[in-house]
Amino acid sequence: MAGIRTRLQQAWQLLRRLSGDDAYERYLRLYARHGHTAAPLSREAFFRAWQEEQWDGVKRCC
Predict the structure, then answer these.
(1) What pLDDT, in 10s, does the model give residues 38-57?
(2) CB environment 6-30: b (16+ within 10 A), e (fewer)
């Protein structure tokens, strides 16, 4: 039973990573690892900045 639960948790984490759902948690871990002194962005500010980066400007192939 524990093996199935572990595999389900791993699959869930992979799905969250591929979808970008865990982006804020990864940002906080990286932020803490680098020892910044200022407060990190709020969840709302982080996603606003992330969306602006993804969608700002012309995005086309040709």
Answers:
(1) 899 999 999 999 888 887 87
(2) eeeeeeeeeeeeeeeebebeebeee
